[in-house]
Write a structure and sequence with these properties.
Layout (H helix, E strand, L loop, with lengths): L2 E6 L1 H9 L4 E5 L11 E6 L9 E10 L8 E7 L6 E5 L4 E5 L1
Parallel strand pairs: 1-3
Antiparallel strand pairs: 2-5, 3-4, 4-5, 6-7
Amino acid sequence: MTVHVLKCDEGYFEDVRQGAKEFEVRADDRDPPFTGGDVVALVHTDPGPSYGAVLIRRIGYLARGERIPPGFCVFALRPMEAGDTVRGEMAMGKTAVSK
């Protein structure tokens, strides 16, 4: 299981926080690649009071190919489940997830 740290602009960040946006469309360029069950840490990147805030979600359904343009993927953002923990030492480039 991998933790993917992703930048997220103000409008999208707030929509995810409020539960209105439950998906991501992203370049499929990660190594290791996005996989169902992975964790995403969405980091608020616009200046302001929420700068640096982080939302933690789990990747649910993941789509590639056929109707998705080459080089992109679409995935569902699911809330973390009870008992999930995410420990990150992002400054050291290390992340860990346990359940």
